[in-house]
Write a structure and sequence with these properties.
With 377 residues, the chain is of the alpha/beta class. It contains 10 helices and 15 strands. The protein is globular.
Length: 377
């Protein structure tokens, strides 16, 4: 008996270790489960008709993320100018991204959250950091959390370390980096993908220092980001080269696609873009090869599967037992009968006296539902 005790103790110890290991595996699997929701902040910072392509860039990305499942409630769209209603537009209420007016990216259901002079550096930073007035409507808020993957796309005119907003102000790479750090400290994102299409775009992510950020740019420092597809009918270039080839790539993506971020890095070589696109992944904790395109451009929906059968129809007998007899419906009512306006008016006048033509009348309600009038001197 004494010799068997160590064996029993060893067996119990092994069982305890296995149980602890199983709990640890479950915890690790939970924390590896990734994000639970997706958001997109799409910003065009340019005004005036000759910057038509920047609006088309932003609307093209908007069209792609909606097609892949991100709803308007999770998209903050900022357009500094309304090209669809510009007097110079030969096709009102349209914005085209391909020559010969093949693809209208404006569509019938575009929801612009910030437009015209609402697109400012201050409003953009307030959206990112959540420092907005309480009266701000929900559609103008970035309601993300620490389980959110956020796509931030920006396009416009820029330079070494800055991006212009409407030719009146600019945001610097330091301000943008500090805004992302505030987002991280306030637990407003899980992972963040930053894409910018502007001249010297790589300078905008040089100062980033917050974790879980992956950044892409259309050009290196000292390079211009070039336009693409001039259209003689509209009279301007329709898109920028980098965004054009990114959108061609996204058109081949579907919600169940296994395409990863490394494929996105290769969509616009210098032979096509003329400029040299860049990317930065040192702040990102995962290998880009293991990051799906749909982790940022698509929508994630957590579905919990239950093994129990749930009946949506309640037992009528139980329902009748719960209600008092006077509350049971004796006959089905039409919609118009559910609001007995005439009866309400009669009850109102039957509860008070009115004077007509100098004679006082008192109304009393009979059981038949009609009013009885009595004359008083």
């Amino acid at each position: 008996m004494a010799a068997a005790l160590p064996a029993v103790a060893l067996l119990l110890g092994c069982c305890g270790a296995a149980l602890a290991s199983g709990v640890q595996d479950q915890a690790e699997q939970f924390f590896r489960s990734g994000h639970t929701n997706n958001w997109a902040v799409l910003v065009c910072t340019s005004r005036f008709w000759f910057n038509y392509r920047h609006v088309a860039n932003t609307l093209s990305v908007y069209r792609s993320v909606k097609r892949l499942g991100i709803p308007d409630s999770h998209i903050v769209l900022m357009l500094a100018d309304d090209m669809a209603c510009n007097p110079r537009n030969p096709k009102p209420a349209t914005v085209f991204s391909h020559k010969n007016m093949e693809l209208n990216v404006y569509g019938d259901d575009v929801e612009v959250d910030y437009r015209s002079y609402e697109v400012t550096v201050e409003n953009f930073l307030r959206v990112l950091t959540g420092r907005i007035p309480p009266s701000t409507p929900r559609s103008k808020r970035l309601l993300s959390d620490d389980r959110s993957n956020i796509l931030i796309y920006m396009t416009g005119h820029g330079g070494n370390g800055f991006l212009k907003f409407q030719d009146s102000e600019e945001i610097t790479n330091v301000e943008l980096a500090d805004a992302f750090e505030q987002m991280w400290q306030k637990r407003r994102y899980n992972e963040l993908l930053f894409i910018i299409d502007t001249c010297q775009g790589a300078s905008m992510y040089e100062r980033f220092y917050s974790p879980n950020i992956m950044a892409l740019a259309s050009s290196q420092v000292g390079e211009d980001s070039l336009s693409h597809q001039p259209d003689l009918g509209i009279g301007v270039h329709l898109m920028d080269r980098y965004t054009f080839y990114v959108l061609e790539f996204l058109e081949e993506i579907h919600p169940a696609s296994q395409t990863n971020m490394n494929d996105l890095f290769q969509v616009c070589p210098k032979s096509l873009c003329v400029s040299t696109p860049g990317h930065r992944t040192d702040l990102f904790q995962r290998d880009p090869q293991n990051v799906l395109i749909t982790d940022f451009f698509g929508s994630v929906r957590k579905v919990e599967i239950t093994t129990e059968t749930i009946s949506l129809d309640r037992d009528l007998t139980v329902f009748e037992k719960e209600l008092p007899k006077d509350e049971l419906a004796t006959e089905p009512l039409k919609y118009a009968d559910q609001l007995p306006v005439a009866q309400i008016i009669h009850q109102f006048y039957c509860s008070r006296g009115d004077v007509f033509g100098g004679t006082s009348f008192r109304f009393g309600m009979r059981l038949t539902g009609k009013c009885e009038s009595k004359q008083y001197s």
